[in-house]
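Researcher: Quick sanity check before group meeting.
Model: Go ahead. Protein one:
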Amino acid sequence: MRIWTAAQQRPLPTGSVTPFGLLNDADATVRWFLDRTLLEGDGVIGVHPNTNDATVWMNTRDLIAIIEEHGNPVDIVEI
């Protein structure tokens, strides 16, 4: 099992941890764990667009599709 830290997300600026950072994982080896409750209700999630001075609001299922299309595994879990 490989543990991936935020510091390995380069070239993202410090403090910009975001699911979009997975798109920098060229080998698509990092698993993304998402709390199941984020799919409930309107299913909208706010994430940083690789910088922490803005927020993108989008459908959670669309975000999952983007990450899976990149090749990273997504695990929906109960936290």
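Researcher: Fine. The other one?
Model: Protein two, sequence then structure:
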Amino acid sequence: MPELVNPPRRIVQSGSVDIVVQYGHYVLEAGGERSGADAPSRDGLLFGEAGWLAVVCGSDFVPVPCRVEILKRMPPAVDRRWDMVTEHDLDLAQGVLTVMGSQGHHPHLTLSNTPGVHRIRVHVRNRERALHIADAQPSVDISPVNPEEHLIQLWPVNRARPAETLLGPDSYAVSYLSGSV
């Protein structure tokens, strides 16, 4: 992964996980109830509700390297080395965030912070070059290194804001939104 924009003193807690993507996404779970069917993504990267978000991946049924950072405050700048960066609000009602596959499978990562609304910034890179287990031939080895990478940053906020794309969309989001993925 590239160097991070934020100096370490701003990071309250962090962790990394190779999250197994299932059905084209993984979930950021904050204890929220799901109201029913998943709504489609409006930006080609995130969909969900107040207490959970799903992150749309180029990969499917393979691990994606993901780093999660809980910050004291909003990062000073958007790191332009990523292909797409989107922000959304997420209510950590119990102060706990779990990153997990869409079916709740392991491995997963759990971090904690103060309860309440947090702004979440999701960075992605190389989704269009991601690995797909369905594309592999049984006689061909799949490289253990997936070029798709994710960085998730979150920090507490006093008031909610609308979702916003800060960088992008990337080519995968354009294809996703046009229905060609």
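Researcher: One line on it for the slide.
Model: Residues 137-143 have pLDDT under 50 and may be disordered.
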